[in-house]
Specification:
alpha/beta, TIM Barrel, 9 helices, globular
Length: 288
């Protein structure tokens, strides 16, 4: 039986602005509404970035994450929620780990963990070995599961190093992000090498940066993996960049492709069981 499809919804990110596209959700209410609409369409998990309410600039503040998570859990108490711990704008452990200390109904299930430093088009994401290990240690202590972000094959080897140091434990969830200018490219060779190198007991989703999103999502659906999809990685609906996408249009396209491939969408409850997460409804993260 074909594995059901993990849809990891990425509505906002750190880069898209209202000037780039009016469709990107930036405020707490906009993000919550886009996630609400996404759950009605069908998703498995959500990867959240918070923005300052006044400026729209990315923020690490746990108070803003708390408002978003509270809003989401009012209509879906089982959705798997991951908070971003990105190093693109923030480089102090106290900042990057702040959202991991939310508790009770506001506790995230997962936190993103990029497994090395890398360059994007115009900016670097700095992730020193010490920072990666410290974030992994905080998540382990807090009972939060790392969402392992990989842009190159070597980053997978670093996940195995963290496993050896007992900073992370299986089962694992990996986002494999392809098509970034300075990293693994969005083609079958890079994709295959990375998938083949994953540790045992790993679940994975493919993401394509920019207009490669459709290509990588399609490949993932065809070969039995999951997808990461949303305006964080790509604001265009077509590869010629003539039509701006919405989160809804990107999700509905994934559903169409999944149906053509006879892939059912994985429900959050199923991912919770596979990842040894607590069941939701007030119990979040992994039991410590």
């Amino acid at each position: 039986m074909e594995e059901s499809l993990i849809i990891n919804f990425t509505p906002t990110g750190m880069i898209p602005t209202k000037e780039m596209t009016p469709h990107v959700p930036v405020t707490v209410s906009e993000i919550v509404e886009d996630v609400h609409r996404a759950t009605e369409i069908g998703i498995t998990m959500v990867h959240l970035h918070a923005r300052d309410e006044d400026t729209g600039i990315p923020t690490y503040k746990k108070e803003t994450y708390a408002q978003i998570i509270e809003g989401i859990r009012k209509f879906d108490s089982k959705l798997v929620i991951c908070v971003s711990l990105s190093g693109r704008n923030f480089n102090k452990l106290e900042q990057r780990s702040e959202a991991l200390f939310l508790e009770g109904d506001l506790k995230p299930d997962m936190g993103s963990l990029t497994l090395s430093s890398l360059n994007f088009n115009k900016v670097a994401s700095t992730n020193s070995p010490q920072m990666i290990q410290d974030l992994a240690r905080v998540m382990k202590e807090q009972g939060i599961v790392p969402e392992l972000e990989v842009f190159d094959a070597g980053m997978i080897n670093y996940a195995k190093y963290l496993e050896h140091k007992e900073l992370i434990q299986s089962p694992y969830y990996f986002n494999l992000l392809l098509g970034n200018i300075a990293c693994a490219q969005a083609d079958l060779l890079h994709t295959g090498i990375m998938i083949k190198d994953l540790p045992k007991n790993s679940f994975w989703s493919l993401a394509g940066i920019g207009t490669t999103q459709l290509q990588m999502n399609s490949i993932a659906i065809a070969i039995g993996g999951g997808v990461r999809v949303g305006l964080e990685d790509n604001i265009w609906y077509d590869t010629d960049r003539t039509e701006l996408a919405t989160n809804e249009s990107l999700l509905r396209r994934v559903h169409t492709i999944a149906k053509a491939n006879s892939r059912a969408i994985m429900k959050p409850e199923e991912l919770r069981k596979k990842m040894n997460l607590l069941p939701g409804d007030g119990s979040y993260g992994r039991k410590i």
